[in-house]
Amino acid sequence: MDYIDAHAHVFSQHDTFPAAARYRPDYTASVESYIEQLDEHGFSKGVLVQPSFLGTDNRYLLAALSKYPTRLRGIAVLANTTDATTLEALDKRGVIGIRINLFGVVCPDLTDPQWKVFLTHLANINWQVEIQAPPIYLIQLLPVLKQYRIDIVIDHFGRFNPTKGVQDKDYFKLLDMLDPDQHWIKVSGYYRLGSNLGIQNAKDAFKLLMARHMKDRLIWGSDWPHTQNEHQVNFTKALTTFKHIINDDALETQILTTNNISLFNF
C-alpha cells in the first residue's frame, strides 16, 4: 500500500522563534526521526507542514525536503507579498502549498488587493491552501476562496469549539458550506477537539462529514510529533485511534492512499 501521511512537522529547538510564537518546543523533531516513523508504520511518503511557531522562516522545512525529495512534500508559511518567481522556486524544491494558521490572530480580509494577487499566484501554480482556524473564521473565508481554482484543505475536522463539540452553530454553518469539488478535510488531530482526547467529538464530526458527501475528500495526517500533546499521543496511537474513529477498513485504506494521492503532488 502507498500510504501517505498528510500532516507532520519537523523543527529544531535551536531555531529562532518569532516574538509572537505562542509555543516554543524544548526538543528537536528531526526529519530523520520522522522518516523512522514513516518506515515503522508502513508509510512511503509524508507531507511536512510548517509549524506556526517558526512563522515564515521555512529553512528547516526546505532542508528536510532536500534530504528526501522523493518521499516528502511541504506546506510553507509565507507572507502574502510573496511574488510569483519566489513561489516557482519553492515549487521546484517540493513545496506544494501554503498554510494559514489563524488561532490567536485576527481573521484576514481576503478581498484585500494584496491577498487577491497572492491567491491568484497560488492558483496559477496549482498550490493548495491549508487553513487551521475556528469555524467562525472559516465561514468568512470559504466564500471568498470559492472564486479561485484552489484546493482548500481544512485542518483537524474544522477545529470546532471543544466545549460545544459539533453542536457549535458556526460548525454547522461550515458543514453546510463544504463543497467536495474544492474542499478537503483532515480527519486528524482528534486530541485537539475536547476532553478524553476528543475522540467522541471526532466520531460525531466524522459522521457529519460523511453525511455531507465528503467521503472522497477526507485525508489523514499523523500530526507528528503532536506538539503540546507529546506525552499523551504518539504516531502509533494517532493511527490506531484514526482507525477506531473511521471503523471501516476499506474507507481507512481509501483515506490513507487514494484520497491522499489525489491531493498531494508526488
What does this protein structure show overall?
The chain is built from 9 helices and 8 strands. It has 266 residues and is α/β, with parallel strands linked by helices. The protein has one domain (3-263): Alpha-Beta Barrel (TIM Barrel). The chain has an 8-stranded parallel beta sheet with strand order 1-2-3-4-5-6-7-8. β3, α3 and β4 form a beta-alpha-beta unit. α5 (135-145) runs parallel beside α6. The chain starts with a strand and ends with a helix.
Indicate the topology.
Elements: E1 3-8, H1 31-41, E2 43-49, H2 59-67, E3 72-76, H3 84-92, E4 95-101, H4 113-124, E5 128-132, H5 135-145, E6 152-154, H6 169-177, E7 183-186, H7 199-211, E8 218-219, H8 235-246, H9 249-263
Parallel strand pairs: 1-2, 2-3, 3-4, 4-5, 5-6, 6-7, 7-8
Q: What labels describe this entry?
A:
TIM Barrel; alpha/beta; 266 residues; eight-stranded parallel sheet
Brief write-up:
With 266 residues, the protein is α/β, with parallel strands linked by helices.
The count of helical stretches stands at 9
CATH homologous superfamily heading:
Metal-dependent hydrolases
* CATH-assigned fold name: TIM Barrel
Structural class category: alpha/beta
Q: Which stretches of 5+ consecutive residues score pLDDT under 50?
A: none
CATH architectural category: Alpha-Beta Barrel
The average pLDDT is 94
